[in-house]
Design a protein that fits this description.
9 strands; globular
């Protein structure tokens, strides 16, 4: 894929960043999330520990492919997302890494728990010339001097225009583990307790590695 072809997708970069930060892809209605159901469990969730790899997010949704690896270690998490050009998840043009901690909340129904994730650091790295050009044209996170292979810390810009607009540092989610598969809630905005999803996203699946 050449840089010119990839650059035509610059306008949808914000959508890809949102997918890299969140864990669902369908809309949820404002205020549809349940109120907190009791005190959170501050202990790490044993069943979450280890590495989980997502399937390839359907490129038809954003024009770009995206695959993520989610690592839970103790009460910390690292999500590494690779964004590819049109046609699938075969290249690594832009890499987004989000690190932070989580608190597992109460079970809201059988097998489904609340989970709150707090981001402490987020970086974006162009891994190909096409990816670098995309970031430059989009002025992603207010940055225009993107260099190939150089990670930029975008933590301070989280939640601002063009930089995870609907995903601030605090995210309110749900999750369920079924066999070796991990599912998160469906939606695009998890920024408040009231926007915590109710239903699981069944099209975006993490599989235990």
């Amino acid at each position: 894929m050449n840089a010119g072809s990839f650059a035509r997708h610059a306008l949808i970069l914000g959508s890809v960043f949102m997918l890299a930060a969140g864990c669902g892809e369908k809309n949820n209605e404002p205020g549809s999330g349940p109120a907190p159901a009791g005190p959170a469990n501050t202990q790490s969730a044993v069943e979450l520990q280890g590495e989980w790899q997502s399937n390839c997010l359907n490129p038809s949704l954003t024009g770009l492919g995206e695959r993520s690896v989610l690592l839970f270690s103790g009460q910390d998490f690292t999500r590494t997302s690779q964004v590819s050009g049109p046609g699938g998840c075969n290249s690594n043009d832009v890499e987004a890494v989000i690190q932070g901690s989580y608190v597992r909340g109460p079970m809201i129904r059988q097998g489904v728990h609340q989970i709150d994730l707090s981001t402490s650091q987020a970086t974006i790295t162009p891994r190909s010339e096409a990816g670098r050009l995309l970031l430059v044209l989009a002025k992603a996170c207010g940055i225009s001097d993107w260099k190939l292979g150089e990670a930029k810390d975008i933590t301070a810009a989280l939640g601002t225009e063009g930089c995870f607009e609907t995903y601030p540092k605090q995210t309110y989610q749900i999750y369920s583990i079924e066999g070796n598969q991990l599912f998160f809630g469906s939606g695009e905005d998890f920024s408040t307790v009231g926007k915590r999803p109710v239903e699981l996203e069944r099209n975006y699946i993490y599989t235990k590695r």
